[in-house]
Amino acid sequence: MKKVYIIVSILFFSLMTFAQSGTQFMDNRPWQEVLQRAQRENKLIFVDCYTSWCGPCKKLAAEVFTRKDVGDYVNKKFVSVKYDVEKPNGLEFARKYRDQISAFPTLLLIRQDGSIMQRIVGAFPAKDILEAIQNGVNGKTWQVLEKEYLDGNRDYNFILTYLDLLLKSGENEKYADVKRAY
Asked: Of all residues in the chain, what percent are helix, strand and coil, respectively (each to 5)?
């Protein structure tokens, strides 16, 4: 009996440690509650917009958001929430940000005032998702690079970075235009 207790205890604490290593999400909570928590904790907001039938969404949930490196970064900087956009609070959120959600999954980085910082559309490897999130936090978004592009920057490495950000942000038409022009 003592062995069973020890084994159960080890399993329980292992599961607790595993569960805490990834991104900590509020699940389908009212948007106003998320905003208030972000203001109270002085953090940005990370939103995962998904549907129950979306395969790439399930892949992100299983392979990216469970990773310790992703969780460590996101949990430190953000209040995170995930919305099933086919459920009540998710529908309300999707209506508010309908111009930002064109496919699933869509990940949004949002300031405490509700304005969008960065958008990531699609399921990418954890390294790419984390890099895109860090770029957003550091102000390196496609909108910022677009200004530099329009001012004439055609440096090869700059163009590659700009194209990468356009692709990850779901800006497919701009991506095609810049790629064709270059």
From this structure: 55, 15, 30
Q: How far apart are the first and last CA of the chain?
A: 70
pLDDT < 70: residue spans in the chain: 1-20
Known catalytic membership, residue 54? yes
For residue 108, give the H/E element and its range.
strand 106-110
pLDDT value for 180: 94
Which residues are CB-contacts of 96 (< 8 A; sequence separation ≥ 6)?
Answer: 31
- Sheet order of strands, 44-50 included: 25-27, 78-84, 44-50, 106-110, 116-121
CA-nearest of 61, 60, 170, 54 to 119 is 170
Residues 109 and 136: their CA atoms lie apart, in Å, by 7
Catalytic residue selected from 44, 57, 110, 130: 57
Give the pTM: 0.85
Q: Which entry of 47, 49, 54, 145 is annotated as an active-site residue? A: 54
The span from the CA of 169 to the CA of 142, in Å, is: 8
